[in-house]
Fold this protein.
Amino acid sequence: MRLDAADIEDFALGCAVLGSGGGGDTEIAALQAVAAIEANGPVDVIEVDDVPADALVMPVSGWGAPTVGIEKLGSGDEGGRLVQAVERWFGRPVAAVMAGEIGGGNGVWPVSLAAELGLPLVDADGMGRAFPEGPMCSMHVAGLAPEPVFLADEHGNVVTVEPVDGHWYERIVRQMVVTFGGSVPGADFVMTGQVAGTATIAGTVSLGLRLGRSLAEGGLAGLVEASGGYLLATGIVADVQRRTTGGFARGVVTIADEGNAPVTVHVQNENLLAERDGAPLAIVPDLIVLLDDATGRAVPTERVRFGQRLSVLGIPCAPVWRSPGGLAVAGPTAFDYPHAYVPVEELVSRG
Amino acid sequence: MRLDAADIEDFALGCAVLGSGGGGDTEIAALQAVAAIEANGPVDVIEVDDVPADALVMPVSGWGAPTVGIEKLGSGDEGGRLVQAVERWFGRPVAAVMAGEIGGGNGVWPVSLAAELGLPLVDADGMGRAFPEGPMCSMHVAGLAPEPVFLADEHGNVVTVEPVDGHWYERIVRQMVVTFGGSVPGADFVMTGQVAGTATIAGTVSLGLRLGRSLAEGGLAGLVEASGGYLLATGIVADVQRRTTGGFARGVVTIADEGNAPVTVHVQNENLLAERDGAPLAIVPDLIVLLDDATGRAVPTERVRFGQRLSVLGIPCAPVWRSPGGLAVAGPTAFDYPHAYVPVEELVSRG
């Protein structure tokens, strides 16, 4: 499979859906990916099993608040400096690039990087969606350690972090994000192809392209069918509370649903909980997607506005997140929600 | 030359003098150095010219505010992790340890590290005193780049920083210091023995020991003679203004000099400017040392207290700091003082 410039618009649509409101804006990332492919040729997308067992896979992501990412552009050299730092550290070449998270701009940006570096992109990622914290990924659930973490900003600064544990990982990296102006690209969980075969979520690049095509061609109904998701509500945004604090974008969106009680969507970079009358309609790690009825696109949390007409879609998450290990890392309790996790399909059938 | 446990008390006295009020407290560093020597044997102190031309010299320092350093002890493993990070990066062994700055606890701490690692200590440093900012060192004046900068905290975290320039060096490292609780040990300007031969200030470990011995045996008069310094004032501390902000300890000390107008000493981690009636008595990069008449010891800025009886000593700095390049890096204008630099011996002769 190859990603050509003509595929990027649909792919970005699909990544925006998988972002569950987060992962950063896809529009600028898509423009960059198209430019990178036009300059360097299309990107080979390879199965994770096709990566040589002892070759390095480099997962890349943008850390920080997506509200900042919109206005803070990269220089285009960050990826090359990341590869340089990773290769220097491990003493062997990077064989393939992978999206750390497939959701939002973070799913699209690695396409530019792969094109610029002439490297293949692995058809997998570490989340199958977007999550607000780096350790919320399948590699962590598989027991891998993230370190060293490599960060490369648009000025040319490179920082390599070897945190002693997850607490210090978050503390140091989050502080570096703030120091670098609120968002910065980075690589962590660098691993061999053999390890990637069991520690990643396979097929999510093709899933992103498939969902985007379904949405572009079949609209909301097409997306519901292709994603196995559920239309939970449709209505007008009646209130948006939002603040960017400590490197996160937090907020609550209230949607006035016609003929029903209003739906509230709780946000920490991503849409994490949709409630009606205090009862969950869908809850993290399942995906909660807000689709703008006017544009037919998934709306990132930072672009939700008063008066928008939105459809709320719940999509079952990747199976790893429903395991006890997955729920411990990224279930409702990891976000201090008082609800137990119930899969969206069960919540819908309870009605 | 060797540093044995019995030498440390005098060496620490001398480093406190060279600290010009800064470089961190020497008392805890001296206790650590004695313990490390008793456990591992004395430390060989070698001439910089005796380091093999292609072997690595690792300058080490404690970054951050000395007011925090007093209360925040290390774990004793930081040095080993720094060596590990440096050796991994450069792909060859560290042959010798060097104090990044000889002043204060930062001059004494490398003795512990050398003892624990079984490595020699180079009889040189990068400042010949203490300065508040890492780049204010002879290696910088010689045109070397500091990066990569290696930081290792007491929890086991290691961060490797490759800043794009001096501005980002300060910004990133200072932020890491704050993240690590206000002080953290680190290594930068790692260089070969050949480079160290021209880029460092030679003989400052033996100078520290010599000054300490002179002070212990001959008191203030002995120190004045051994240091080539000048007694500028003697009096009681009448006022201390102090605040720890942005990783620095800043302040102004007013000393009521008997029979003369009061002397004010301006502090940014170190004593940088001594004035009487608005005219400089001594100014950075020359050393300004406050000696406690009761104990006969140099007082670090964070231990200056109302009512102390102090002698103010001005000592000519290492020649590199009086060159145009040295003054550009660490002269009065680098600290935004309105005075031109005049050597302390000229200020004294103007009287």
Summary: The CA atoms of residues 172 and 280 of chain B lie 34 Å apart.
